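Deliverable D5.2: sample structural annotation.
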Amino acid sequence: MNLYHLKYFVTLAKYEHYTLAAKELRITQPTLSNAIKSLETELGIQLFEKDGRNVKITRVGNNFLRHVTELLAILDLAITKAEKEGHGEGLVRLNLLRVLSNLVPHLARQFIDQNPEKNISFEFSNAHGLSGEMIKNVQNKKTDLAFCTKINVNDPSLSFVKIAEENIVLITSKDHPLAAKKAVNIFETLAYPQIWFSKKAGMRTIIDKITNDLNIRDSIGISLEVDEDETVAGLVAEGFGIAYIANNKVLNNYPLAILPIKNFDYKRSYYMVYRNDIYHAPVVEDFITYIKEVSL
């Protein structure tokens, strides 16, 4: 069915006059007449009947008009939305770690403020709080971007852009024997049970590297393994163990001693992750470009 014929039909129904309808459509009257005849033949119904020098829409034509009007309104809305998206408007879907809940929304707000003429919105999700899950969501196109820790993923279709980094520190409860120190040597920590991140967490990759590099893994007693920074901090605050963790603002919510580690240059880096082998909506591409411009 020809879309133009439907639009011609709606216009003729509006005027019930071929000359006036053809004038508004900027086509010839024979072209309009042939289009209506073609539409009637295709549908097997009569849409208009003569009324002197004019025409009147039939009852079945009026029923058809109601549905066509609704259809064209939906189509116009879809076209308008697509055109706006083509000019950099629309939705950006992203996953983020909870520890980035200050930074990433701030970046999103700055991006919106820099584009006041555009209707831009964001969808934020924590995706169970695990970097691995977020990266899978990017791979499976369930989200446009992820802001998380870099996991060892052998996937050339993924791009990682570093956006921030934090020093790795030791945290203890306020009454722990190490809490009074200004800084600790990492070998001082080996005598105490530790809270570790689970193997599903991005931070675990960093801790594995630290303990392997320093050849201390076999000397550490792990009391618990959990997924997220908040859980680690809460357990440490209640005396279940000590922990190596990135020094982020989340720690300020708990009664902890936060201790630098001497002669220690390990950091936790955070990344924006996206697919580099697929089409992204212009608003997503614009946000990716913006993050690259303001990142480390």
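Annotation notes: Residues 166-268 form a domain with the D-Maltodextrin-Binding Protein; domain 2 fold (CATH 3.40.190.10). The chain has three domains: 3-87, 90-162+270-295, 166-268.
The annotation will be released with the project's public dataset once the embargo ends.
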